[in-house]
Amino acid sequence: MKPTNLEWEDVLQFEEVEGYGQHIWRDGNNLYYVTEEGGIAVQRVVYELPNELFTLLESGERTQLEILSKLQNDCWPPTEEEYKDFALDSLKLANQSLDQDSKICPDLLYSRLENVDEKDILTFMELDKETNPLVWSCIANYFALICYHSYQHSGEKYLPQTIESVDEETIEAYVSSYQQLIAENNKLLDQILALDLDSSRMILWLTITLVICFKKSS
Fold first, then answer.
1. Average pLDDT, integer, range 49-62
2. Where do the domains of the chain lie?
3. How many CA atoms lie within 13 A of 49 on its CB side?
4. Half-sphere exposure of residue 180: CA atoms within 13 angstroms, side-chain side
C-alpha cells in the first residue's frame, strides 16, 4: 500500500485516536496511520488505515507492528515458524563466515541483521511476541559481533552505523543474555566452561546451545 500525499501538518488537523502514540488519526469516517520512514533522512509518512485493519487492532487480534507491516508491505509479517527458520538459517550462515576460507560477503551477513525490506533479525525481534526476548537479544548481539568481525577481516573502512557501534557493551549484553538463558541448566554451562577451546570453537558451542534454547522457547 502506498503512502498518501498528506503532510504531518494536515494530519494535525484531524482527531487523534488515543492509545496508539500519535500514530492513528481520524478525519470523519477515514482513519490514517502515521509513521517514520527514510533511514538517515527520516520523515513522517501517512497511510490510509482501512476500518477492517483498525478493527483487528482494537480487538487485539493484531498488534500495532503487524498492522504497520501490512500497510507498508501489503502482507502480514512472518509466522513464528518463519521467524525461527530465518534465525536458524542466519546462525548457520554466521558460523560458516568464521571459516578462514569463507567467501561470504559482510554485506550479506549485515542484510540478515537489518535491511530496508524489514525482513531481518532486528525487525523480527520486535514483531515476535512468543519467543523469549532473551533469545532474540542473544541472536541480535551475536550476529552484530559476527558482522563486525567479518567487516574487519575484509578490510572494509566504512561500516554500517549499527556495526560501527559494536563494542565491549555488545559482548557484555550477549554474554549476559546467554547466561540467563542457560541459568537453569548449570550442567551444560559447566561443560562448556570446562572445555579448552579456541575462540571460534567456543563461539560454535555457544551458538549450538543458543539454537537449542531458540527451538524450545515459544
1. 96
2. 8-73, 80-216
3. 27
4. 13
